[in-house]
From TrEMBL:
This is Nickel ABC transporter permease subunit NikC. The keyword ATP-binding does not apply. It is a multi-pass membrane protein. Belongs to the binding-protein-dependent transport system permease family. Keywords: Cell membrane, Membrane, Transmembrane, Transmembrane helix, Transport.
Amino acid sequence: MNRLLGIVLAALLGVLAFVVPFLTPDPNGTEYGAKLAAPSWAHLLGTDQAGRDVLARIAAGTWVSLGTALLVAVITFAVGLAVGMLAALAGGVVDTVISRVIDVTLAVPQLVLALAIVGVLGPGHANLVLAMSVAGWAHLARFARAFASQQTERPFVIASRMSGVGRWRSAARHVMPATATGVLAVATLHIGEIVLSLAGLSFLGLGVSPPTAEWGQMVAEARGYVDRAPWLVLAPAVAVLVSVAAASLLGDALQDRGKR
């Protein structure tokens, strides 16, 4: 059931990203005669303070918000998998050093660390991706190290090593696929957290620059019009909620499948 609901929500986001832009006007196109217009057939989610179509901006924001979250997820997955595998397979001093670095990184809350990095580098999309990637790789590296350590103790891996197969070749053939599957499930679960963090940072003005549509930034721009145009806040907030729910449900489904 969770998998089905997750697929449905993901499909909704897919329609929002790939279909809706062809059915709506320019997301940055202004119509000052229709500022703060209520939802209607002409504008299904109404218009904002500049007369821009809210549905069109939500659809455009899907590419920015979800695209950025997926990019961060891919980077953290790749770095976390590589570092965790290296720690588990190398062992000794290498494992100790990597483990201490992971512990130090995890000691600082991800959002606080990302805020600090963006504060040093300055606002902007590229800096936001870098900050979220630096803040998010450590927990995946810890999972990867744990998964890889478990896999190296499997009988077929031990048999492979005893038959003369080298450590790294055996790891590439037997350990990495299983470890990558486990880490992927965890990374999928964290996509929702990344979406929320990105929306929060964009709300603070540390993300993309206007007039680019982004869900967190849309909420920030609309906070002064909540009493007159609540749809300006509700629409991007629901988009974030659906994204988080889809990621969580699909991540749970992947974890359940991995346990079978």
